[in-house]
Specification:
single chain; alpha+beta; 9-stranded mixed beta sheet; 41 helices; 37 strands
């Protein structure tokens, strides 16, 4: 009781205070104690000294001195005291913000010609907007944290349960969690209301898997269910230090003078929920930020787009331009300052910065003055505008696109970051997983091989596709014996309804079915009848195998922690049904290293059997000698199944004698109780019994392609995107899947580099790993060299075939060697398609990084499982599939979609639009700021390089923030060159993004020349005539009169220039451009009344004819060159999208703003889409610039067909002279 009044926890480290139990208490030998130099590496658990923590269950007083962390969590970036300093630090990490801070400081010095407030106010506004956004996001995190921390939970206090908030929990407390409740911390499972001390949990918050998982308490603690009994529970837990490994746990419970090993099956992780159990009792092991889910809550690696990196270079270029302008002005000032200009008063009493005798000081001071004067060359609102555009694009366009909504799973597209929108428009390489990404991950038992005999007469989609590729017709007769249910699509009467008893190998069939029914970790749900039972499995494959056993007459209907119950039919005799209980003695679980799963069970008659299922490569290595014919035939069947695109597993068994098992089990228990390297020791012990296996047969499971995958891949290939498939399947399966999804076709030249050669097999049979490595490297080098020579031969031919490379994981391991990787890169980058089979998750990431760094092109990785996370994070852009393998891939991705086919919309539509829009936004910002700054620069020559400002301070400050910012944001949101349907109809348009056509230095130079020309027009057309101009009072125009006229012309011209670059003009464009110009006039009308140097200036100049003449002629003169340039460019050197615009210029635009699909009732996909679109406001965009009829359409279509057809002069003349088609009225359309 007293412990509850003593504060929640201490934040001090446990490293110096953790008490290690002695040998007599813990049962840990000195050999199991790791040296004190061990450290923690996230993702690869290695304990830190002291290696283990000691926890006293139900004894808070003993735990308090150790200082374990409390259970309160915080996911906020800031607190009350750190928000301002940390937030400002984050903002000033941006070069532009830091630059304007320096300008603001410089403007407060005597050298500045402008008021410091005019620089500080825009910067403050930008910082305020950014900090408000940060504060809002952090406030939402804080509210979420508070809701979680104050969630109630039952905690044992004395002999009763008391409700307390989660944040008051501490390590060692005993808690009760009710049905459907979330676990407040990482708990040691003590007892449950279910029999045999089991409970069912849902881990969807951890890995997205909705299937239930079973957890079992230690048998010695099953009775501690009630509060009275739980208050008597006193134990000591010695376990690993906190780490981020979700699927491992190493520890022992010292209870009643016994050492009981704790495995992950006794740990209930925070974030999981209790299902199908009234309540459980547990003891807190890890709390707060030390729980495994919180230690996995790491941010996705920060990624910057290529456009952003190039934007940095553009900013540096502008800084260089600024320096050159300041240098010219400073040199001019140092030369111009002379005593002969007596009227300037340059006498001895003048300030040092104007003293002709101190020209170095004059030079230095002028540079500082001009830096503040020309500071507008860097747009202060650029980053804020781009961020606003990107956020709107993701939240309103990508996330709410109905064409990427999947109604079957109720899953829309999700942009998890807005930093990479434009990167989607430049992708050249796609790395894709196969299972669950290209395929549906809905497994169906399709065929099998038992005792050397193939069963199953069906034909897969890939087999049918292969027959059709050879020009043959597929005719599949309807079968009357086929059985089809979810997970089972099998047609062979020889095995159904007990007919297997009449086969030549009935004993093998019986072992095969029992292996399917026993060797798994599936949980049955339902009333125990075959029709109503449902299986909760860790993977769709495992569920399909158990469903197959049920259909073959071996119905698995109940599981306890130690028993499996199977209802067997037709075993003793036809028609007889028996419920048989098998005692599960040991489970050797599957992992990506072992690639197999084994179960040791005891039959009712005492027979001990080990059943094992796994990949063919690992099972064949562990088979007993002899029975070579069966091995050979089964291997042939495996290759046959692989060629049909089926997923295969080998099944084997081994009879165990009691003596052998008892001896092995002692080692297994010892390894299971070890606190050091437990997983490694368990694998070593498993090797001792998983040998001398007897082959039973193999299974073949079909995983069909997702809808629209072949068409999507074909479309992406036409867009110039190269697609790589990285899969763990066998070579034959991978090749046939590639054919089925049109990644490879018969016209391609295939290079196959495989380890399944006679030379390598001979070396493998010798068992010498050193010799095998040497031969493998030599063979891979020879094959790579041969393929490269052949590829170079095809490169030299005019109409050579497309190339495809297929390589397996073993060869890939040697091909990625530094000595061979250059050769591999040379071959693979010239291949249209690449298939890597038998690759591990690590190799997927290595291949992605290898191409990303070697090719220096934009890469995208797409996958659906936890094994794809490293590949997704290694690419420039990561896309997760919301599939059946959990949400880990989605949580690590930048974008999430439900189906692979949605990738065409994501890239060809949203990616392309975002890229073009943002490129034009950046270059337009560059143009308008350079134009404005150069007019000030020209005035510097006339002002004797004195640093006199041409514009008023507030003109200069508000130019970017108010008068030119909104139109460019509207452009970045709504501009469309072609519609979404045309973007997918002409995927070749995407190649412009791959070539980076819209953000090359040539494009930047064109805008710079336009800015240079227009600035001369603005300055000289306004100033030169004004020398003789007079206002209505007969006075000549002054500086502020001239600068106000010039500024008005600049604002009008740059906004009108924006309309010229628009491909589609909506009402928002009119509002933004018109509002910006009118906003300027409204501002100057008010400002000239209160500003002393501009007193009534606008009213004076507006009373003159000269003002209106300039207002008409100057924008026309400034934009005339751009108008002519755009016409010539569109006519003679059109972009591909301009050609498509010309082709479809008479067709109605299908521009509709996709709105959010609010799923209220269950409509079909077409009904939901049609209904939602009818509810949206409609607006047609008006395409501009179509008067220029393009003569380049022939070469465009020729390029689609892969034929070189340059434009001819007579084509230009003929097209120019063609009579335009009569426009069709919209009513007729």
């Amino acid at each position: 009781m007293s412990g509850w009044q003593r504060g929640d926890s201490s934040s001090s480290s446990t490293s110096s205070k953790t008490r290690l139990g002695g040998r007599s208490r813990s049962g840990i030998s000195s050999d199991d104690r790791p040296p004190s130099s061990r450290t923690v590496r996230l993702g690869h658990f290695q304990p830190q000294a002291p290696a283990y923590r000691t926890i006293h269950c139900n004894d808070r007083d003993s735990n308090l001195p150790v200082g374990f962390k409390g259970n309160s969590i915080s996911t906020t970036k800031y607190n009350f005291f750190t928000f301002l300093p940390k937030g400002l630090f984050e903002q000033f990490r941006r070069v532009a913000n830091l630059y304007f801070l320096m300008i603001s400081i410089l403007s407060a010095t005597p050298f500045s010609p402008v008021s410091p407030i005019t620089n500080m106010v825009p910067l403050s506004l930008v910082l305020l907007v950014s900090l408000c956004k940060e504060a809002y996001e952090d406030w939402k995190r804080f509210q979420n944290d508070m809701a979680i921390n104050n969630t109630p939970v039952d905690v044992l206090q004395g002999q009763r349960w008391e409700i307390l908030p989660w944040k008051r929990l501490q390590v060692g407390d005993i808690v009760k969690v009710n049905k459907d409740g979330a676990f407040p911390a990482d708990l040691l499972f003590i007892a449950s209301t279910n029999p045999d001390g089991v409970c069912y949990i849902e881990t969807a918050n951890l890995d997205g898997e909705t299937n239930l998982k079973i957890r079992k308490a230690l048998e010695r603690t099953w009775d501690y269910v009630t509060a009275e009994k739980a208050s008597e529970f006193k134990g000591e837990v010695q376990c690993e230090q906190p780490n981020n490994s979700l699927y491992t746990f190493t520890g022992n419970l010292l209870f009643q003078k016994q050492t009981l090993p704790i495995t992950p099956n006794q740990i209930l992780l925070r974030g999981c929920r209790l299902r199908n159990t009234e309540y459980i009792v547990g003891s807190v092991v890890f709390t707060g930020h030390e729980t495994k889910v919180m230690m996995n809550a790491m941010n996705v690696p920060s990624k910057r787009s290529t456009l952003e990196r190039k934007l940095d270079k553009l900013i540096l270029t502008l800084l260089g331009t600024l320096f050159m302008m300041c240098l010219v002005g400073a040199i001019g000032s140092a030369v111009f300052i002379n005593k002969k200009y007596y009227y300037l008063g340059l006498t001895r009493g003048v300030e040092a910065q104007f003293n002709p005798d101190r020209r170095v000081v004059v030079f230095s001071a002028t540079i500082l003055t001009l830096i503040t004067l020309f500071s507008t060359i860097i747009p202060i609102s650029l980053y804020v505008s781009i961020e606003m555009i990107k956020v709107f694009q993701t939240t309103q366009f990508i996330n709410k696109d109905l064409h990427m909504y999947h109604p079957e799973t109720d899953t829309p597209a999700l942009a998890r970051t807005s930093n990479l929108n434009e990167e989607l428009g430049q992708v050249e390489y796609i790395f894709s997983d196969k299972t669950g990404t290209l395929t549906r991950n809905m497994m169906e038992f399709f065929k099998c091989s038992i005792g050397g005999e193939v069963y199953g007469t069906g034909m897969t989609e890939i087999e049918m596709d292969g027959i059709q590729r050879n020009g043959m017709k597929v005719d599949i007769p309807k079968s009357t014996t086929a059985v089809h249910e979810k997970g089972f699509n099998f047609d062979d009467s020889r095995l159904m309804r007990g007919a297997w008893r009449n086969e030549p190998n009935p004993d093998s069939c019986k072992e095969f079915f029992r292996c399917l029914a026993i060797c798994h970790t599936v949980l049955p749900e339902g009333d125990g009848t075959p029709e109503k039972v449902t299986y909760q499995a860790a993977s769709p494959d495992e569920a399909a195998l158990v469903i197959a056993a049920k259909n073959f007459g071996f119905f698995f209907f109940r599981r306890t922690p130690t028993m499996i119950y199977v209802r067997e039919s037709h075993v003793e005799k036809m028609g007889k049904v028996d419920d048989v209980s098998y005692e599960v003695l040991n489970v050797l679980e599957f992992n990506s290293t072992r690639k197999r799963q084994s179960v040791v069970c005891r039959y009712p008659d005492g027979r001990l059997v080990l059943y094992c299922k796994g990949a063919d490569t690992v099972i064949y290595e562990r088979l007993a000698h002899g029975n070579d014919d069966l091995k050979k035939v089964t291997r042939e069947h495996l290759e046959q199944f692989g060629a049909a695109g089926l997923r295969t597993l080998c099944l084997a068994y081994r009879d165990l004698s009691p003596d052998v098992y008892e001896g092995w089990n002692e080692k297994f228990i010892q390894a299971k109780s070890s606190l050091r390297d437990r997983e490694k020791k368990l694998d070593e012990v498993a090797e001792l019994i998983e040998k001398d296996l007897i082959m039973i047969g193999c299974t073949a499971i079909e995983d069909k392609l997702q809808e629209g995958v072949p068409h999507c891949i074909e479309t992406l290939s036409r867009a110039g995107i190269k697609i790589w498939v990285l899969t763990g399947d066998k070579l034959e399966t991978a090749i046939n899947i590639a054919y089925a999804c049109k990644l490879i076709d018969n016209d391609m030249k295939q290079f196959i580099i495989s380890s399944e050669t006679d030379v390598i097999r001979e070396v493998e049979e010798r068992g010498d790993p050193v010799e095998l490595a040497r031969v493998m490297k030599k063979e891979v080098k020879r094959e790579l060299k041969k393929c490269l020579e052949e590829a170079q031969h095809y490169f030299q031919t005019v109409n050579g075939p497309k190339l495809a490379l297929v390589i397996d994981g073993k060869c890939l391991m040697y091909a990625l060697d530094p000595a061979l990787r250059a050769m591999l890169l040379n071959i693979s980058l010239n291949c249209t398609s690449v298939v890597c089979c038998r690759v591990s998750p690590l190799q997927k990431a290595q291949v992605t990084s290898f191409v990303r760094k070697g090719a220096r092109k934009i890469t995208l990785s797409i996958g659906d499982g936890a094994n794809d996370v490293s590949m997704i994070q290694a690419a420039h852009v990561g896309v997760g599939i919301s599939g059946l393998e959990g949400m880990q891939a989605v949580m690590a991705s930048d974008f999430a979609i439900a189906q692979f086919r949605f990738l065409s919309d994501l890239l060809l539509v949203h990616g392309r639009w975002s890229y073009i829009r943002l490129c034009k936004v950046v270059t337009y910002f560059f143009y308008k700021n350079l134009t404005f700054t150069l007019t000030q620069f020209w005035f510097t020559f006339q002002a004797g390089f004195s640093g006199q400002r041409f514009y008023d301070d507030w003109f200069q400050s508000l130019y970017n923030v108010m008068f030119t910012s909104l139109p460019v944001i509207i452009f970045g949101l709504f501009d469309k060159d072609v519609s979404a349907s045309l973007s997918k109809k002409y995927p070749e348009l995407y190649r412009e993004g791959i070539r980076n056509s819209f953000f090359k230095w040539r494009v930047v130079a064109n805008w710079a020349l336009s800015a240079f020309y227009q600035s001369l027009i603005f300055y000289h057309f306004v100033t030169v005539p004004s020398f003789s101009g007079q206002n209505s009072h007969g006075k000549i125009f002054g500086l502020w009169d001239i600068s106000t006229i010039a500024f008005t012309c600049v604002v009008m011209t740059v906004n009108l220039r924006l309309l010229m670059m628009c491909n589609s003009i909506t009402r928002w464009h009119h509002i933004a451009v018109g509002g910006s110009i009118l906003g300027w006039f409204a501002f100057i009308f008010v400002y000239s009344l209160i500003r002393e140097n501009l007193s009534y200036v606008i009213y004076v100049i507006m009373s003159t004819f000269y003002f209106y003449l300039n207002l008409i002629l100057i924008p026309v003169a400034a934009l005339l060159v751009d108008f002519i340039y755009q016409g010539i460019q569109r006519w003679f050197f059109p972009y591909d999208y301009q050609i498509v615009q010309e082709i479809h210029r008479h067709e109605p635009d299908d521009f509709t703003r996709e709105g959010a699909l609010h799923i209220v009732n269950r409509l079909t996909e077409e009904e939901a889409r049609a209904f939602t679109i009818t509810q949206l406001p409609r607006e047609k965009s008006k395409h501009t610039g179509f008067a220029f009829d393009s003569p380049g359409y022939e070469s465009f279509f020729a390029s689609q067909a892969g034929v070189l057809a340059p434009q001819k002069p007579w084509d230009v003349v003929r097209r120019a002279s063609m009579r335009s088609k009569q426009k069709v009225s919209s009513s007729k359309k």
